[in-house]
Design goal:
Distance between the termini: 112 Å
Family: In the C-terminal section; belongs to the transpeptidase family.
Number of strands: 26
Strand order of the largest sheet: 7-6-14-13-12
Pathway: Cell wall biogenesis; peptidoglycan biosynthesis
Protein name: peptidoglycan glycosyltransferase
Domain Penicillin-binding protein transpeptidase: 300-519
Shape: elongated
Domain Penicillin-binding C-terminal: 684-757
Helix content: 25-40%
Structural class: alpha+beta
Strand content: 15-25%
Radius of gyration: 39 Å
Number of helices: 23
């Protein structure tokens, strides 16, 4: 003991060392009673997005304009850890936060002998400086740094401190942490660095201002540091450094959308296909240049792999940085009026509920539903159409009529089941849901159209490459999804693309367009094999443009994208009809199973036990008196001439007449027939279309009021007579009744005595 004291007295340096050790021990003991500090604030970090092949799309800046990407120690290569400790702090695992030997050597060299300035900062001290932004060029600052280092060592393991250091160390300019540095300098994740790249990064934090390889001079200084650390190792010559200016800003809307879906993830390996994204952006740019003079300035594109619902292409606007078109707005996420793009799902529901088949005859004639009298986009009527024709031609009247018949679920309930965020109750939308009354985003539309490719199963969009596909939700039957897909495949392709070339016809495409009310939004969505593509055009400020018509404007762009993307992918296997379908012979005009009187026939699909299979009643056998050309009653057994006649309803005949198409009525009966013996009584009874059952009609006192009576007469009927509570009020397909308050029975009778009736409440309006 005496020898030790004597030696210490003879050496001021050793006395300083002993004092330092004692002071460190006292601080160490005192800090055991202090609370644990926050080691790293991960809330304000960057995020990185890569495409499905690992190529960098985006490295974001933090709110304080730094590149700071949290990376767990397990993902940091061992070569980087070893090189950092070798170069920065070889005694890291043996000291308590301060290295007394290094500190003594630095004090002796810098202050006592003043030979040269030496640093004594341990890795823990450097972490403390970074964590609390300390100024350590003064004695007070250095002492504070040492105290914080001891505090950190008192509360955290060495591996936690090493992890924190490598995530906060400066790597030049505004780059913090090795994870961000790997992406900036090498465009790859830190885990993918080779040994040479890792050793080069380890040299930067000691002098980041001089060594960060952002220019030739800095790279030369980094090379000198490499030679000092590793001698003549040639590894530096194999390195290829990138600069911050080379950081990509690819698919910006997609990157932001992915971050919003997974805000806690620092690294997002996405499903985006770089080739598909580039094709989408290029074709969209050419499309907008073509239509610039028409005032079409903005559009969006989304491409999805239908079986997995993986997002392959995502272009939220024409130009992210163009403030004139509000390019930063994500048009694929924003709800817009979908126009007619929801109609396929009305038809799919109608098939599922047994209301129609693809060949069922639907009426495109004037329709009144209470106070609502819908119109078609072109403000005309085509008359009777097959369900397929009505869908392909996007007629409003048939779709609205079908929507009114849907039950369990209604169409509003169906959309809610599909997860569509429509904020209002069904009554607020009414039947306008068929023509775009509720706003919806492209992302949601893509999920709906995905059901047509996935046997009626609703699947969520998949954004991450390694993400498991959650179980789907069956909302349509496989049969109805297949049939609606076939119906949409009969939609003719556009004749030419906007680039002027003809479209190929190798692959079937199920596609639909939409145009919002007021010409503010144009849509086109198509399914081709395993590809699902949606395009939208419009203005984010809601301004209209007469050129924003879905089929005319966006049909060519849709097919250009489908064809271009398909060229990069193998051809899918042809789809197989579900086993629940059956082919039968049907009448082309009525869409019903053929009767003995149908002159023509074709094959069509039905779902046995679900589809309506009533035999054709459009074509019927009648008997004519050759002497006068009039129709003989069914009970008349006298000789006559047998013919086949077509029995169209009066509204259909009127539509034919307006279109310049002639369809003759069956001749009238030569006398009043016995109704009890007529097989056509139920079929041919007139149908009241106005007023509507269950609707209360207000009548204002002291004013002239009128309620319109309207009916459809079955084929062969020429005259209709109207009665209110047995009082005759008029003759014709439409009459106006001067209404009075009260409950009344309305009866319409044709010239053969066949009738229909309805009870209506006319209430006194206040």
């Amino acid at each position: 003991m005496k020898f030790t004291v004597k030696v210490l007295k003879s050496s001021p340096a050793k006395r300083l060392l002993l004092a330092t050790v004692l002071l460190t021990l006292l601080i160490w003991l005192a800090q055991g009673f202090s609370p644990q500090p926050l080691l790293v604030n991960r809330a304000n970090g960057s995020y990185v997005v890569t495409d499905k092949n690992g190529r960098l799309l985006r490295l974001s800046l933090t709110s304080d304009e730094k590149y700071r990407l949290w990376t767990p120690l397990a993902e940091l290569p061992q070569s980087l850890q070893d090189a950092t400790l070798y170069y920065e702090d070889r005694w890291f695992y043996r000291h308590p936060g301060i290295n007394p030997v290094s500190l003594l050597r630095a004090v002796w060299s810098s202050l006592i002998t003043q030979d040269r300035r030496m640093g004594a900062s341990t890795l823990s001290m450097q972490l403390a400086r970074q964590r609390w932004r300390l100024k350590t060029d003064t004695v007070d600052g250095k002492l504070k740094q040492m105290a914080y280092a001891l505090w950190l060592e008192r509360h955290f393991t060495k591996t936690a401190l090493l992890e924190a250091y490598l995530n906060l160390a400066p790597y030049g300019a505004n780059i913090e942490g090795a994870g961000a540095a790997a992406w900036v300098y090498f465009h790859k994740p830190i885990s993918a660095l080779n040994q040479d790249e890792a050793r080069a990064l380890a040299l930067i934090p000691q002098n980041p201002h001089a060594r960060a390889p952002m220019n030739p001079a800095a790279r030369q200084r980094l090379h000198l540091a490499w030679q000092a650390a590793y001698g003549n190792d040639p590894g530096f010559d194999r390195l290829w450094f990138r600069s911050r200016k080379e950081l990509p800003f690819g698919a910006p809307h997609f990157a932001e959308r992915l971050h919003s879906l997974h805000p806690e993830s620092a690294t997002l390996s996405s499903t985006l296909d770089g080739t598909v994204q580039a094709l989408s952006e290029e074709l969209l740019g050419g499309f907008l240049r073509q239509h610039r003079l028409q005032g079409v300035a903005n559009a969006s594109v989304m491409v999805v792999h239908a079986p997995s619902m993986a997002v392959l292409g995502y272009v939220g606007s024409a130009d992210y940085f163009n403030a004139d078109i509000h390019g930063y707005v994500n048009g694929l996420k924003s709800p817009r009026s979908p126009g007619s793009t929801l109609k396929p799902f009305i038809y799919a529901q109608a098939i599922t509920q047994g209301l129609i088949t693809p060949d069922t005859r639907l009426k495109d004639t004037p329709l009144r539903l209470g106070d609502y009298q819908p119109e078609n986009f072109e403000r005309n009527f085509y008359g009777p159409l097959s369900a397929t024709e009505a869908l392909v031609r996007s007629r409003n009247i048939p779709a609205i009529s079908l929507l009114a018949q849907l039950q369990k679920p209604t169409f509003h309930q169906f959309l809610l089941q599909a997860g569509i965020n429509i904020p209002k109750q069904a009554a607020n939308y009414g039947l306008s849901l068929a023509i775009g009354g509720a706003e919806i985003s492209m992302e949601d539309l893509m999920k709906l159209y995905g059901m047509l490719a996935n046997a009626g199963e609703l699947r969520e969009l998949r954004w991450l490459n390694q993400e498991d596909q959650p179980a789907g939700k069956p909302l349509l039957t496989p049969e109805s999804a297949f049939l609606v897909g076939e119906m949409l495949e009969s939609n003719p392709r556009p004749q030419r693309s906007f680039g002027g070339r003809s479209f190929g016809r190798q692959r079937a495409v199920a596609w639909k367009t939409g145009t919002s009310s007021g010409l503010k939004d144009a849509w086109a969505i198509g399914v081709m094999g395993d590809l699902l593509v949606g395009v939208w055009a419009g203005n984010f400020d809601g301004s209209p443009n007469r050129h924003l018509v879905g089929r005319e404007l966006l049909g060519p762009l849709l097919f250009d994208i489908l064809d271009a993307v398909a060229m990069e992918r193998p051809s899918p296997v042809d789809k197989i009809p579900p086993p629940g379908l059956k082919r039968i012979e049907i009448c082309p005009l009525s869409g019903q199973p053929v009767s003995d009187w149908c002159p023509h026939r074709k094959e069509g699909w039905i779902i046995p036990g679900v589809s309506p299979i009533k035999t054709c009643t459009l074509h019927r056998s009648i008997r004519i008196n050759p002497a006068n050309g009039l129709r003989k009653c069914p009970e008349d057994d006298t000789p006559g001439e047998t013919r086949v006649a077509e029995f169209w309803d009066s509204d259909e005949l009127e539509a034919f007449r307006q279109a310049g198409i002639r369809h003759d009525n069956p001749p009238p009966f030569e006398r009043l027939c016995e109704q009890s013996r007529s097989v056509d009584v139920v079929i041919d009874s007139p149908k009241i279309v106005s007023p509507q059952p269950g609707v209360s009609y207000p009548v204002r006192g002291g004013q002239q009021n009128g309620i319109e009576f309207s009916a459809i007469a079955a084929g062969g009927q020429h005259r209709l007579f109207w009665f209110v509570d047995d009082s005759f009020v008029g003759e014709g397909a439409t009459v106006l009744w001067p209404a009075k308050p009260g409950r009344v029975e309305i009866v319409v009778v044709d010239d053969q005595g066949r009738s229909s009736s309805l009870v209506v409440d006319a209430t006194r309006a206040e």
